[in-house]
């Protein structure tokens, strides 16, 4: 079986490529022109170049492909609505169109953020529909899920939607950005005391689930949540990361104050294309309980957490701080 992976040089995409290769799949990777892809070529991956936001550059990338794993997106907590929709919604539409009459399965990597941000998501089921919140990343993911499902319902090709929780591992934004913030003047404050679950999924656990979603017959037309069964709060996770560099969380911001402050700061910074020091996305993720339900994923895909929290943190430490 031959697969196409977009975002193959990114955090999740690169882990997925390695997992697919280890299981004997032939892999084609879509890479931006000028992007370093030598490690992919060295690993035996077929590299093709194109820009998902440029429809014409995608001609032929799906030829002889069985399954598309669409991982590419704008993965950050700041930016304008236009930036997020261009990199997520419009890019996915281009890939869906290029996939017509060529592929057997399309797997879209969404996010639990598609369920809406700024409220508790605990207990939200995989069958729950996407909702917008006014946060560009959330809204772009929600609209893209609707579009992907329409392609499935129109019988263009079978589609599966994957909604990861907060993906951690070496290179994750939930490692890199927190460490960078620790090393800044402001440090890392807790939101609402860091009392809520960090709702994490380790990248190695996630890519195992993505492949299950892309290969099992039962997964066609379904949406799956991936969240590890770790009992870890944001306070514990941030504290554990800080220990590696001799830092601790600094201060606490109540959710309502953090949300209002982020709203004001984003309204000032986003039009200037400047990263806001506090964003609604970060506040919503770190200040709400996002332990979505994973029953369908476990019962239909047989997916379970394989890498424990302590082992995952040890791996992060080895790759990030040594």
Describe the model:
By secondary structure, the chain is an alpha/beta fold. It has a domain at 2-167 and 199-228 and 290-307: NAD(P)-binding Rossmann-like Domain (Rossmann fold), CATH 3.40.50.720. The chain has eleven helices and eleven strands. Strands 3-2-1-4-5-6-10 form a seven-stranded parallel sheet, sandwiched between helices. Strands 7-9 form a two-stranded parallel ribbon. α1 packs across α6 and α3 (81-99) packs parallel to α4. The longest helix is centred in the N-terminal third of the chain and has 19 residues, at 81-99. The protein is globular, with a radius of gyration of 19 Å. 48% of the residues are buried.
Secondary structure layout plus pairing:
Elements: E1 2-6, H1 11-22, E2 26-31, H2 38-42, E3 46-49, E4 67-70, H3 81-99, E5 105-109, H4 136-153, E6 159-164, E7 166-168, H5 173-182, E8 190-191, E9 200-202, H6 203-215, E10 223-226, H7 234-243, E11 252-253, H8 255-269, H9 280-286, H10 295-301, H11 309-320
Parallel strand pairs: 1-2, 1-4, 2-3, 4-5, 5-6, 6-10, 7-9, 8-11
